[in-house]
Amino acid sequence: MRKRGVKTWTLRAVLTLFVLLVLGMVGIWLFLRGSLAQLDGRRAVPGLTAEVSIVRDAQGIPTISGTSRDDVAYATGFVHGQERFFQMDLLRRVGAGELAELFGARAVPVDKSHRLHRFRARANAALAAMTPAERRFLERYAAGVNDGLSALASKPFEYALVSAAPRPWTAADSLLVVWAMYFDLQGMLEPRELARGWLRDNTDAAQLAFLLPEATAWDAPIDADSVPAPLAPLPPAAPAWWGKPPADKPTRIAAADFVDSVGSNNWALAGSRSRHGAAIVADDMHLGIQLPNTWYRLALRFPAADGAMRRVVGVSLPGAPPVVVVGSNGKVAWGFTNSYGDYLDLVEVSTDASRPGQVQTPAGWETPARTEETILVKGEPAEKIEVRTTSFGPLRETGGKQYAIHWIAHSAQAINLNPMKFESADTLDAALSAAATVGIPAQNFVAGDDQGNIGWTIVGAMAGRAQPGIASTFPLSPDNAGAGWQAPLAPGAYPVLRNPAGGQLSTANSRQLNGAGAQVIGDGGFDIGARNRQVRDQLAALGTGADVAGVYGIAMDDRAVFIAPWRERALQVLDASAVEGKPQRAEFRRLLVESWSGRASIDSVGYRLARHFMWSLHEVLYGGANAEMATLDDKATAAMASSRWPAVVARLLDEQPAGWLPSAHRSWRDVQLAAVDAVIADLTKDGRQLSAATWGERNTATIVHPIGNAVPFLKRWLSAPADMLPGDANMPRVAGAKFGQSQRMTVSPGREEEGVFNMPGGQSGHPLSPFFLNGHQDWVAGKPTPFLPGAAKYTLVLAP
């Protein structure tokens, strides 16, 4: 009897635990379901002037229609708040330096570096300076965000996992999201100047001119076939640091973990070369890729100035002012790429013991304004930092020196609501004129209209310099501060190019111009130019009568034009004597020959070996210098100082000067063989076979929701598939494990029904939503899908 009773109680306990487990799982499921967006129905909303409809297609792409632009802004906020609030929260926290409040001490270093700029205070000041109509627009968007958030049955699931409550959205938060993009798109300017300053301080003038060429044969400006630049004389001797390994760490292959995060391609074909006479505009913006995707697709419908309904289609940035960032308004289509101009100066300041509390700037002796900033840290006491700000910007100390950070992002013109002007631009000229007034991180603006016109300019805040030139790309001392920027560039001084003779335009983060406008933009870290050259040549090959499909196809070009010469160099050095008695070198050579498709294809071992060979040479020659630069800023490298370093190394391998031969090697042939051996050692670690080192193995997508990284056991449910991706940095099809084409768009204004689009994630940030990964596989495959939203499947009406 006693045994039977024990068994009964055991069975009851097991059943009870099972029931509790089931109830717990049901509770979790219901909680998660409660944070899904409302797709259908009708809601009463105080403050609307008339009904607004939110009509979604099967992919969750909404068309938001209203009779008032403010009402449409409210509805845009509603859908953003319901489907992307956590993403928006992270963006405003990046801009303000407030991530540690959610993620604890590990986020404090980022918060400290961002808090230096006091963008929350700047956002409040910018909001106060806006017109009442502009403030109302942002406030209506914020009201929509908060109402959308409140309408969820439970808070977004991410907040349960980080044990926090969502904080309401404010109008100033939308400005912080734009400043977050300044960090993303111009955050490399500081480490670049520090890297260039280190090189300047550790070389003589002739060596510096050789190491930092202003242009190479790869450059493909839009106003000329090339950039004629005489080669700098080759100095007789290299600097002392040249070719030395890092002193305190083993040599590594930079290619193994290097992320070439240079962003974006866009191009336009004039109506004279299109099949139908309208311009064709293509755009693929390159960003870090995670879930949800950076962009949120939508179509907005509202009355234009003449009373007719205007439809604007494209992508929005959740949290930012609710406008279409890139897209088409039926008359004009436009796209962006990061311009990489010179928009920041590091100005060295000095101190004097006889002037306590003061610093000497180019304007004279100043007493910096001191502000105490409090950083809230989850689970730990708050940290306080003191920010000291001069007339040239906040102060930063590194390498025993103090610098004022003079950044265009601090100016009053850095942020405004003028991107709204693109919604109503009816002609190319109207769009180009509007671009010069817009306050965003400065981008290359390529646009075309329904009459077939195409044009380029810079959109966003630019720095005006009295003495344009390369001096400002290095840290400035007080005696040469005249090379720095004095005020934002006036709109009338922006460089513009309309309807070039060839009927095409393209930009890809490289040098845009050969003419005088190049000095106006300056060089803030241009890409080497190989990508734009490939885009330009592919556009030219389309000839006349091109259509959207042909123009879109250029985004899929993964031909290894840039890496092919490095493969040839490796093959030349791996001759019979080099591989004799060296079976791994022989295998390296065999794979360069037999596993080479001429593309960055996923099954190619040859591509990976050739690319790693180039980067291995970088480590052999620049490794010691990179370690020294990292003491100034952990992002500072020789490659950041100049993307043109491969042209410098190629010239050395061609000319083989004895004075530049690293002391550890007997010949330039030995240098190259050492680079090959380092690649072999890196790729065969842990007994791996060299033949298994495909490009796809290296270039496998790791696209994850931030919570998936913070809570690893959830990663499988918060990640995209681990697809092997073709493509690489120096070709149109840019693809990396966590970086690449965040969207692809090709469209003719007025013919949007023929347009194509895809992006790496779906509309929703919720893993239970059918829109979470909707369209992802189309992006992986490069399948062109419709630009316009499809047939209505869900309808939500917001009524006053």
Automatic annotation (TrEMBL):
Q: Which Pfam families match?
A: Penicil_amidase (PF01804)
Mind telling me which InterPro entries this protein's record contains? Ntn_hydrolases_N (IPR029055), Pen/GL7ACA/AHL_acylase (IPR014395), Penicillin_amidase_A-knob (IPR043147), Penicillin_amidase_dom1 (IPR023343), Penicillin_amidase_N_B-knob (IPR043146), S45 (IPR002692)
Q: Which UniProt keywords apply?
A: Hydrolase, Zymogen
Gene3D superfamilies recorded: 1.10.1400.10, 2.30.120.10, Glutamine Phosphoribosylpyrophosphate, subunit 1, domain 1, Penicillin Amidohydrolase, domain 1
The family line of this record is: Belongs to the peptidase S45 family.
Q: What is this protein called?
A: Penicillin acylase family protein
Look up and give the organism this protein is from.
Answer: Massilia agrisoli
